[in-house]
Amino acid sequence: MPPFPWTAFGASVGVFVITFLLGYIFYAAINRIAKVEDDYCQMRELKVRAEAADVAKSQVRYILGIVAFCNAT
Q: Which of 12, 23, 28, 34 sits in a 20 to 30 Å window from 52, CA-based?
């Protein structure tokens, strides 16, 4: 009976492990890119809402200033 081909077995396992790790790296990178894109869209929406709130706050301060001026005179 011939000896077990350890070299062939080890090489095939090594190729499998390297392929698995490369696939996992690509999978993780794609998921990370998708998460960053989602976070970017969310932050852009929050920025728009913050700017709208800032404009509304400025308008309220302006109106309150006019009311205070009118009541003072």
A: 34
User: pTM, whole model, 2 decimals?
Assistant: 0.63
CA distance linking residue 58 with residue 54, whole number of Å: 6
pLDDT tens string 24-48: 999 999 999 999 999 999 999 999 9
Distance (Å, whole) CA 70 – CA 64: 10
SS3 15: helix
Which DSSP string corresponds to 19-52? HHHHHHHHHHHHHHHHHHHHHHHHHHHHHHHHHH
